[in-house]
Amino acid sequence: EDEQIVAEIMERRFFPDHIAYKTWEGFHFAGHEIRITEATDCYGAVVWPSALVLCYFLETHSKQCNLIDKNVIEIGAGTGLVSIVASLLGAFVTATDLPELLGNLQYNILQNTKQKCKHQPCVKELSWGIDLEKNFPRSSCHFDYIMAADVVYHHPFLDELLLTFDHLCKNDTVILWAMKFRLENENRFVDRFQTLFDLEMISNFPSLNIALYKAMRKDRMKA
């Protein structure tokens, strides 16, 4: 079953039939052809398989996970593929990443959503753990979904990442997080994450070493 679904996920990718001056990959999701411009010298400007897994889930579970008119934020949006698919499925999306990635992120989102979406997505800077209350005040920011694909890897900002999840997540917010398992140090982040959130694995793809999780706040019932 894993191999069959993984094959279906990877079939959504297509490549240009000629060499262009811009590096891009193509994908088929939500009834659209999506073209993503990439920069192969930057981790944050490449489409990673975890993003494809999350996009596939959003499309194939659109009835159970109805995004129409929902308020969605993607952290570590990178090239914007997940944000684009969520937008095409009817969500109002805020795509966030580091300032140096916003130009390419904005370009991809505009090229693939303009006049195609119910709500035009917006792009906003978010450096994990920095100025969270200033840029995303708890009193006025309410997200139905937080989405993240491949945000846990060998980087020194795992504490800040957990702080960001905690700040953005209300009691009724659902986190959808696709993670590729690599080194044990990053894998321990899952244990730390579970001190704050109830975590449920909703899909697992051993051949990709990727798991898809759904999470909500532990204290939501008390609230």
TrEMBL record:
Q: Which organism is it from?
A: Rhodinocichla rosea
Classify the source by domain of life. Eukaryota
Q: What is this protein called?
A: MT21E methyltransferase
**Database matches in InterPro entries:** Methyltransf_16, SAM-dependent_MTases_sf
Quote the PANTHER family the UniProt record gives: HEPATOCELLULAR CARCINOMA-ASSOCIATED ANTIGEN (PTHR14614), METHYLTRANSFERASE-LIKE PROTEIN 21E PSEUDOGENE-RELATED (PTHR14614:SF1)
Q: Name one GO molecular function term.
A: methyltransferase activity
Which is a Pfam family this sequence falls into? Methyltransf_16
Give the record's GO biological process terms: methylation
Q: Which CDD domains match?
A: AdoMet_MTases
Annotated keywords: Methyltransferase, S-adenosyl-L-methionine, Transferase
What gene name does this entry carry? Answer: Mettl21e
